[in-house]
């Protein structure tokens, strides 16, 4: 299953990057996400154990996330029961508190029955995910401390990640299979 969406949102790319990078909060606001726990990693890469509820089924997997702050986040998994999972997020600055967010997703699982269930249940999943992140950003903006000089700032610790030429270095690959 492949899906893509691109939107311009009224938030800084740093804010949206931080929301997407904060995987442990996904179960609080994303459809289907039941669990997300960072197992290891740091500012440029982390491994996450995740569980998604897809109708009556539960899909559990470990993903690798690569961060190029604030332009790109790539999430990959290729261990059973996932044959191939890739979420490629890009964040393009469009001016003060405005950015273009693009999400390209590929999901293939080893079980044909589960793959058919995913296709049937997830229909417009990527647009729904994007809408959920937009709603989360709005909620975070409303709950921000008004005394802060930057109302788009999240309550997270930020790390500076050097920005390269837009490609991931070959040394940042998942344990098996590499980026596709």
UniProtKB/TrEMBL annotation:
Which residue ranges are recorded for the region named Disordered? 137-180
Q: List the source organism.
A: Roseospira visakhapatnamensis
Please state every residue range assigned to the domain named Coenzyme Q-binding protein COQ10 START: 9-133
Q: Compositional bias of type Basic and acidic residues: which residue ranges?
A: 145-156
Gene Ontology MF terms in the entry: ubiquinone binding
The processes (GO biological process) annotated in the record are: cellular respiration
Per the UniProt entry, the signal peptide is none
Q: What is this protein called?
A: Coenzyme Q-binding protein COQ10
Q: Which family does it belong to?
A: Belongs to the ribosome association toxin RatA family.
Q: Which domain of life is it from?
A: Bacteria
Q: Which InterPro entries match?
A: COQ10-like (IPR044996), COQ10_START (IPR005031), START-like_dom_sf (IPR023393)
